[in-house]
Amino acid sequence: MTYLAIAAAVALIALNLLVIISVFKSERSVGAKALWAIGIALFPVLGLLFWLLVGVRRVR
């Protein structure tokens, strides 16, 4: 069970880093990027989900 928790934590950290990179590559203002990055860092699970649901602007 411990290895599963470690694997989940590593996966969450990796996903958060990818999302923060995605935030900084977006076309938002510097302030908005900083707020998104801080929010994702402070609330890793909720910030990640919120960025994926609301923050990503999909081009259609």
From TrEMBL:
InterPro entries from the UniProt entry: CLS_N (IPR027379)
Intracellular or extracellular location(s): Cell membrane
Keywords: Cell membrane, Membrane, Transmembrane, Transmembrane helix
Chain segments annotated as transmembrane: 6-24, 36-54
Its membrane topology: Multi-pass membrane protein
An annotated GO cellular component: plasma membrane
The keyword Membrane belongs to this UniProt entry's keyword annotation: yes
Lineage: superkingdom: Bacteria
Sequence ranges assigned to domain Cardiolipin synthase N-terminal in this UniProt record: 14-55
Official protein name in the record: Cardiolipin synthase N-terminal domain-containing protein
Protein species of origin: Stutzerimonas stutzeri (strain A1501) (Pseudomonas stutzeri)
